[in-house]
Amino acid sequence: MATEPSAIAEQKAEAAEAKPLRADAQRNRDRLVEVAAAVFAERGIDGSLEEIARRAGVGIGTLYRHFPTREHLVEVVYRREVEGLCAAAGELAQRHPSDVALEQWMQRFVDYIATKRGLATSLRIVLTTNSTLFSDTFGRVSQALRQLVEAAVADGTIRGDVDASDVLHALSGIYSAPDTPEWRDRSRRLVKLLMDGLRFGAGKSTKA
To answer: Staple partner for 74: which of 24, 61, 79, 122, CB 3.0–4.6 Å?
Structure first.
């Protein structure tokens, strides 16, 4: 199915989003975004819109009614991943000791990076029409991590000389690692090594 010129498609998408959806339409939209995140994380640029529609249990026409272009779907998926990552910081902080909350959030960050890598090509296209997308979302992710790090420093579960920006820099290195089949497992091991280093000065090494 041919897609419409991007300017027209964006106008239609904005008009559609301005109107409240029926409950069944909202469920379809939410399901499409959920499935798209999984497909893009698994298959990257090879993830097709037809596969997303099929796995979501809807027709391709339904997908295009909600997301007139691939880039529109990509942006919605990306924003959803950022919102979920940021919301997880508060949820984990309420349920776990501060160092455990930080570690679990960083493991979730690996999943976020996996999806972002899958979206990379399309996100570059999105940036041509939304130049503030990355700066806006980066600020939110940085703040979520800072809150977790500062809480763990305050109660002594990680070393006191830790700066959240350094932790984020270390985590961001995961994004540039080679995209191999074992990338996700290796990234999770790196998070555990990073947490051992953060705990070391506080006497909280996780060695078995």
So the answer is: 122
**DSSP codes, the chain:** -PPPPHHHHHHHHHHHHHSPPPHHHHHHHHHHHHHHHHHHHHHGGG--HHHHHHHHTS-HHHHHHH-SSHHHHHHHHHHHHHHHHHHHHHHHHHHS-HHHHHHHHHHHHHHHHHHHHHHHHHHHHHTTT-TTHHHHHHHHHHHHHHHHHHHHHHTTSS-TT--HHHHHHHHHTTTTS---TTHHHHHHHHHHHHHHHHHHTTT-----
Question: What's the rounded Cα separation, in Å, for the pair 92 and 81?
Answer: 16
Residue pair 120/78 in contact by the 8 Å Cβ criterion: no
What is the pTM for the complete model shown? 0.79
Write out pLDDT tens, residues 28-65: 999 999 999 999 888 877 789 999 999 999 999 999 99
Domains identified in the chain and CATH numbers: 6-66 (1.10.10), 77-200 (1.10.357.10)
Task: For 158-186, write each residue's pLDDT tens digit.
Answer: 999 999 999 999 998 888 888 788 888 99
Q: What angle do CA 90, 207, 165 make, to 5 degrees?
A: 40
